[in-house]
Structures are given as C-alpha cells and as structure tokens.
Model the fold of this input.
Amino acid sequence: MATIGFIGLGNMGAPMAANLLKAQHRVTGYDIVAAPLKMLGEKGGHAAASAVEAAAAGDIVITMLPAGPQVRAVYLGPDGIIARAKKGALLIDCSTIDVETARLVAAAAAEAGLAMLDAPVSGGTIGAEAGTLTFMVGGEASAFARGEPILKNMGRTIVHAGPSGAGQTAKICNNMMLAVSMIGVCEGFVLAEKLGLPAQTLWDICSTSTSSCWAMNNYCPMPGPVPAAPSNRGYAAGFTAANMLKDLRLAQAASGASGAPTLMGAAAANLYQLLVDGGHGGLDFSAIMQFVRSAGTKP
Ligand code: NAD
Done:
C-alpha cells in the first residue's frame, strides 16, 4: 500500500483516484471544486484543504490538471508542491501539457531533490473508469521503475517514452491523430446518412474494414453503434472539445517550432476552434459531428 496525494479530481482524475483506492492505496485528494472531494470521501479517500496538504500526505503525488498554467501554479513557488512535498516523494503529472512546462517543472523538482515523471494518458474517461489507460511516460528510468507499479493500478499499458517531456510529445502526436481521425469518421457517417445507408450498417462494415479506428470502433460520434460512446448521451464529456482544442494548439505550436508539416492537424485545430467559438467547448470532442452535419448543404 502506498500513500498517494492526488490533485485534480475531474472527469479523469476522479475515476483514476477511485482505482487507486480499489487497489488499497491510501489516497488524499484535492480539487478546487468541492463535489469530487465529497465523492472521494464516499469511496474511502481523504479530502485535503489544499493542493499542498494533499501533496504533503503522499509518498507519491499525482496531478491531473487541465493545462500547463495550472501545473505551473500547483507545482512551483514557495507554496507549491515541489517546495512542500515529502522528502523523497515521487511526483507524477498525468495532465496533458506543453513539453516546455513538463521539462521546466521536472527540472525544478530535480533541483529540490525530487524525482518527477510526465505521464499523460490515452483512453478517455471510459479507460479511466475501467483502469485500462495507456500511460506515456517521460523521466529518468529509476523514477519510471518507482512509478510503474502505481500507474498499473490505473492503466493497462505503461510505456517509458524517454527523458522528461517525452510523454507529452507522444501525447500531443496521439491527440492530433485522434482529432483528424474523428473528423474523418464524422464525415463518413454524414455522407452515408445522406446516401441512405444506416449508421449501424456502415459501422458493422467499416469497424472491421480498412477505415477501422478507435474513434469509430470505441467512440463512434454517430449515436447508435457504440452504446457507451458520448454520442448516445447528448455528447456529454468525456474528453471536452475545449481540451481537444488545447491539445491541437500544443501540437501546432510544436509543429511550428520543429518545422514538421501538420496540414491536417492545422485543419482539425481550425474546426475545433469553430466548435468551441460556437459555445460547445464543454461538450465531448466527438460533438464535432454536430459541426460537420451543420456545415452540410442541401443538394
Ligand atoms: P477536468 O477539467 O474534468 O478536470 C480537471 C480538474 O482539475 C477539475 O476538477 C478542476 O477543478 C481541477 N483543478 C483545476 N485547477 C486546479 C488547482 N489549481 N488545484 C486543484 N484542482 C484544480 O479535465 P479532465 O478531462 O479530467 O482532464 C485532465 C487532463 O487530462 C487534461 O490535461 C486533459 O487534456 C487530459 N486528458 C483528458 C482525457 C479525457 O478524456 N477527459 C483523456 C486524456 C487526457
């Protein structure tokens, strides 16, 4: 049993912390919102009054926050996790953030004598609940060896991608590919609908054909074929369109800095920007289906 401080109990963090409790770890959690703290208490966890209180309670500190600015705010400074964590604690940030912040925070941790991993995840809320996430991890091999058994309580595939920042690099590439494939699946289902082919028939064929992909097989944006998908609950997130836009922007920034050509990634970023500007940033990212539909013209 490990003692774990868990900060950020949102759509992903709450089920991840619940899986740590199921694995018999002692979890002290914190979120700026009260509701998930109450739920953690009901599942056997402990609620802290601040991020540093949760962090100071753990030999392992895990964060699952929205983006880079929150990660910097929570980790850095005299009242940050790095200054207040237990001596020898292992810090694991599972948020999806920019590579630069991941490296900066890990360097600050190293300066304070603390090991740190960037360990963003793939698999969505379904994977977080089922404990089947994929973790892509950046950091020293010795830190990875310490963190891997804990991450296994929340995920099925744990990959050491390389030094600090390597996990975030893998993650932004993954999400850019996911956004592009999601939009492609939406366009296919809308075209089939216009041509009179039922969604279930298209799914039965394509989910075992060459267009088969996670966006279609596990998370189909057209209501019907995949009962657990957000499309069947009014596109309630899940993984929000705003968070997908954030990741696409991270990918575009990295693409600009590295000179990698990401033309489809840029198109996907533009479409998600329109969805978010339309006031739908809180919906699941598969709600891009509604945008694709509304962009259609009458023949
Ligand atoms: P979320 O917005 O549901 O959860 C973030 C939580 O952090 C919220 O509960 C918020 O109140 C809390 N928070 C914000 N600032 C805080 C602070 N200073 N101190 C303590 N708590 C604070 O987001 P999410 O969907 O759980 O995603 C979290 C991260 O995981 C993001 O970086 C996202 O890109 C990534 N991610 C999400 C999914 C998904 O399907 N939802 C999948 C993979 C990766």
Summary: The pocket of nicotinamide-adenine-dinucleotide is lined by residues 7-13, 30-33, 36, 51, 64-67, 70, 73-74, 95-96, 121, 124-125, 238-239, 243 (CB under 6 Å). The beta strands are 3-7, 26-30, 46-47, 60-63, 90-93, 115-118, 121-122, 133-138, 155-162.
